[in-house]
Amino acid sequence: MSLSRATLGLAALAIGFARAAIVEHNFNVGWVHANPDNAFTRSTIGINGKWPLPAIEANVGDTIVVNVTQCAIPPGGSFTYRFKVEQHGTYWYHSHTHSQYPDGLRGPLIIHDPQAPFRDQYDEELVLTLSDWYHDQMSDLIPQFLAKSNPTGAEPVPQAALMNETQDLAVRVEPGKTYLFRAVNLGAFASQYLWFEGHTMTIVEVDGVYTKPAETNMIYLSAGQRCSFLLTAKKDTHQNFAFVGSMDIELFDVLPDELNWNVTGWLVYNEDRDLPKALDVAEFEPIDDMTLVPYDEAPLLPEPDRTVELNVVMDNLRDGANYAFFNNITYKAPKVPTLYTVLTAGDMATNARIYGEYTHSFVLEQDEIVQIVVNNHDDGRHPFHLHGHQFQAVYRSEEDAGDFDEAALEDADFPAIPIRRDTLVVWPNGNIVLRFKANNPGVWLFHCHIEWHVVSGLVATFIEAPEQLQEMVTIPKDHLRACADGNVPTKGNAAGHTRDLLDLSGQNTPPPPLPEGFTTGGIIAFLISCLMGVLGVTVVGWYGITKPDEDQEPPQSPTLAPLINRSDDADEAQPNRGYDGEEDERQ
Ligand SMILES: *[C@@H]1O[C@H](CO)[C@@H](O)[C@H](O)[C@H]1NC(C)=O
Ligand SMILES: *[C@@H]1O[C@H](CO)[C@@H](O)[C@H](O)[C@H]1NC(C)=O
Ligand SMILES: *[C@@H]1O[C@H](CO)[C@@H](O)[C@H](O)[C@H]1NC(C)=O
Ligand SMILES: *[C@@H]1O[C@H](CO)[C@@H](O)[C@H](O)[C@H]1NC(C)=O
Ligand SMILES: [Cu+2]
């Protein structure tokens, strides 16, 4: 563990938990080499020359200061994230910029709470990350994914599953002790089933929300989700036990022969004994997170003041690539980051139009009750994540149930005390209903946490209480300097116009729709048959050899507002990509 954490631990002991501390880190972000699955050495994004990344740990009330140094903003300079932590729980920090987190820029962020309801029930605490691992870099994979040669939008399948970013995780346990495991799925794509042989997990937290203790033998953790559970070690030490993370292969369009979608770790009671092979589990039956109950028993929020309905659609645009849409909009980042538009638009900030047509922006009034209905018109599972809030998960339909029927279901049909979390999976062709109170002014994205679907546009923007936000927020100078250095404008509407804020000419747009008469099914069938015929290979092989289109516009990641994003991630900008002299190839 890093020196800073050791120091922090000592400081906490010395002064007790009464006084708020400042937890400082200096992060130098840059490329390093790693081979966590012992199959392939690749470049990955590290911090201070190391990978996996350190956990950031603090107590509720502390202030976290992270001085991130990176060559991109500003070149050779640094950028400081400083925020007071007012919420407890298990989080992670990661970069969405250019989809960097699957390249390694992902680490746990743990906020300890001396008041946690389970504080007296464990002896030791352990962070356990789950993730998927690609041998190729995102800068190579994205152009293959978002291309006319991939009209069905098949997502690249990872090469391996990792636990704590390795396939060789042995956790030394002492007989009779109880451990608090903080599990985080840092993956780009795959959900994972997690189970411990011979032991029971007692869930006590999901996504920062304490729960009533709930016993289970297995949990399902999507990309972006977190879960803490207590696990009591056995009293005798004659045997070691396997625990397994198993990627949800239903998410994969193809299942490469050589893929082992499981990763095994061990609870080590006795170093002289074998590390046993994991047993085969015939069926997966994880606990249904909709059955969890928040510890504080906060009741169902009242009927919504407004409902936002988002229909998930996958479709092709004129470039032939497959995009993801909420309703008819696929997200395209604005020229001016939305937060800066809010802060420079004066009275116009309450008009959703100024944020652009392709940011899918909704302006929320302070304290209104908002309901989000997601109807999944796609046959895949999607973990939806909202920044800035832990929503109530008021309803989730079965698979294939179709759209949410507001006329058929009313509040009496919803749980009186719904679970809250910030990431919830919707089943194929099913629906979910989420509710929250707009009491946290900010610019909050709502997106699928599968990074491929962020890339293909499954993102909407909530602009919550913009007038209050204007009063609350001043942009630090180093932000503005970083934007200036990166040529990112910080004034005006989505298109950068400062006088007529309703003028969106020149805004960033996705490719135009398919021409009339082209059905999507038709174009896909046509393209697939051509490819299969010409190449004579399976879809699996086709992935490996497809070259990115020369004319492909580089995909843009959404612009985030880390400044006041108190719910999850400290998103970081692009690290130095110029290493090993390979820069030209990748840009
Ligand atoms: C952040 O780190 C860089 C590089 O070590 C240093 O030059 C800079 O002064 C630091 N900034 C702050 C605010 O500590
Ligand atoms: C997993 O890695 C984190 C750092 O990311 C570390 O704090 C933790 O102790 C590790 N967990 C185990 C079980 O070794
Ligand atoms: C992964 O584990 C599951 C559950 O035990 C098992 O059914 C499956 O065959 C395993 N997959 C591989 C590739 O070993
Ligand atoms: C989406 O459809 C609505 C209603 O038909 C229309 O007003 C809007 O302009 C469309 N948006 C885009 C981005 O095409
Ligand atoms: Cu998705």
Automatic annotation (TrEMBL):
Where does the Plastocyanin-like domain lie? 68-115, 124-271, 332-467
Similarity-based family: Belongs to the multicopper oxidase family.
Pfam families on file: Cu-oxidase (PF00394), Cu-oxidase_2 (PF07731), Cu-oxidase_3 (PF07732)
Record lineage: Eukaryota, Fungi, Dikarya, Ascomycota, Pezizomycotina
Regions crossing the membrane: 523-545
Q: Name one GO molecular function term.
A: copper ion binding
Gene Ontology biological-process annotations: cellular response to iron ion starvation; reductive iron assimilation
Q: Which PROSITE patterns match?
A: MULTICOPPER_OXIDASE1 (PS00079), MULTICOPPER_OXIDASE2 (PS00080)
Membrane topology, as annotated, equals:
Single-pass membrane protein
The protein's name is Iron transport multicopper oxidase FET3
The places in or outside the cell where this protein is found are: Cell membrane
